[in-house]
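User: I'm putting together a teaching handout on how multi-component assemblies are represented. Below are the sequence lines for each component of a complex, exactly as they appear in our records. Could you produce the 3D structure of the whole assembly as structure tokens, so the students can see both representations side by side? Please keep the chain order the same as the input.
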Amino acid sequence: MTMQENAESLLVGVDVGGTKIAAGVVDARGQVLSRVQIPTDTDGAEKTLQSIATGIVETMRAAGVEREQIRGIGLGIPGEVNPESGVGLFAANLHWRNVPVKRWLEDALGMPCAIENDVSVAALGEHLYGAGRTERDSKADTMVYLSLGTGVAAKAIIGGKLHRGSHGLAGEIGHTVFVPDGPLCACGARGCLEALAAGPALAKRAREAIQAGHVSLLQEQDQATLTAHHLFSAIAQGDNLSRQIVAGAATHLAYAVYLLAMTFDPQVIVLGGGLAHEENPLIEGIRAGVAQWIERSPVFRVIWHANMLRLTALKRDVGILGAAALLADGETV
Amino acid sequence: MTMQENAESLLVGVDVGGTKIAAGVVDARGQVLSRVQIPTDTDGAEKTLQSIATGIVETMRAAGVEREQIRGIGLGIPGEVNPESGVGLFAANLHWRNVPVKRWLEDALGMPCAIENDVSVAALGEHLYGAGRTERDSKADTMVYLSLGTGVAAKAIIGGKLHRGSHGLAGEIGHTVFVPDGPLCACGARGCLEALAAGPALAKRAREAIQAGHVSLLQEQDQATLTAHHLFSAIAQGDNLSRQIVAGAATHLAYAVYLLAMTFDPQVIVLGGGLAHEENPLIEGIRAGVAQWIERSPVFRVIWHANMLRLTALKRDVGILGAAALLADGETV
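Assistant: Of course. Below is the structure of the complete assembly, with chains in the same order as your input.
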């Protein structure tokens, strides 16, 4: 392939996280040609932007491509952004407030940049390259992406476009109160879905139960580093406490899936995030909970179909591919 | 105004109900030039279509306009429709299944027709002509319409367009279960919002309480014709039972408003339908319930603003104006 053939056909996708930055070169067919991961320097916005720029330059070098071949750079930011101005408005993990990401990177690198919220980016990535495909292998007109990981958040693609809402907060099911007076959430409310069913919530519930004297295989684990994945492993070994905690969270998440289906009437709901990379007891519990809603609600039965709920197809590449999707043809948002 | 100036600048909007058909001529500025109301003949689809055609012809005569001045006819149907084919798929009150509304009326009247579900039509009407306006007097990019009457249903306008979803069922909050094992809903599920908070549900709850021996001013009313409006009047006279029933329904509706706001992040939420034509104890209860969610949820506080929740501006004309909006410039859906 000559440089000429390749001119401006490639994209760089950057997944900016609180601890690490993953950057990749993506071709027109959605293939990731290089993956580079570097630590996020959070010692001030300037340093963070410099580490992002370093990741971009390194992944281009790893893919063996020149600046002239790159059409643009897309970035997924863990927080609130203004996609028009390209300003990172607020990102707790990056300690960002009103950081002019787009301007800084375009000045530094001389390539067009686009930024979006990381969950939105993941939704766009699954829609364009991943699980958001209908039976006839076309992109779903209406798709809901539900991220299950250290947080819980949803984003909808409607009419093929990301639905942001007035403040970019559309799909904030994670901070919707499901249990008034439930456990305190990081957002300040009580009983949000995220406080009931995100990974850290499961681990916290297990730690508290063990401290309260419940017997569990999880007692053998270091309590400080307990994760939802430890609960999944314990369930495989017959641990009752883990089973109960995961089942409780799955019930809430199944209600969220039901609500999102009733609200958006989508073709596809994609479960993404670290807790949905493969089938596990949480996913099984969600499927079981959804089956109960199918049983109960005739309207839901019309909306639902056997292939509606899917796990992420892009898994760990969703951040890179989704960020690239910000600049892909027909996916400008 | 000469006929020439007026050529094809007018629309006919038809609100097809189970008991009556309202038809009106609407001008380019959204003024209703004539209103005709006739009974719906539900003795077979052919008869119903004939009564619709009669209503259209009569309202044109009432407005003094000729066929040549009419650009098209929009119809709101109380049920499921296919807007592309113009087929009324299912309408319980009309006893319709797969009725070729568009083809029949276009053949009979020689004017282009468009059909949509009646709640969708109301949402489009409020968006184009009514309460769906932002502060700067432009149309809301994202607007949610929540209909409160004999049924409860929501429809969202996203990016200025009606969001239908895969089956035209997007926004089915009315048939979303809020109270598992709650009262039986007409849809077959238990504890749907509609079974908890629609007009007939309020009247039913009052009747049941009175039969069970509760004391209420409503005992003076004919129990068979009791409506939510009787409960509102009784509350004004200090009736405790009515107050409790309406407050309970308002709590569920406030949660629905909260859910819709968190899901769509809209600029505007319009309450329409017969229970939202003016301030009343149900609306007051919804506002009070929303105030509690504002108190509880920091994310909701970002999404919410003082002028978010509005009552219908079009009231009884919403069906005519909304149906006309199906064919208005820039509002094709």
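A couple of points students might notice: Residues 135-313 of chain B form a domain with the Nucleotidyltransferase; domain 5 fold (CATH 3.30.420.40). DSSP finds eleven helices and 13 strands in chain B.
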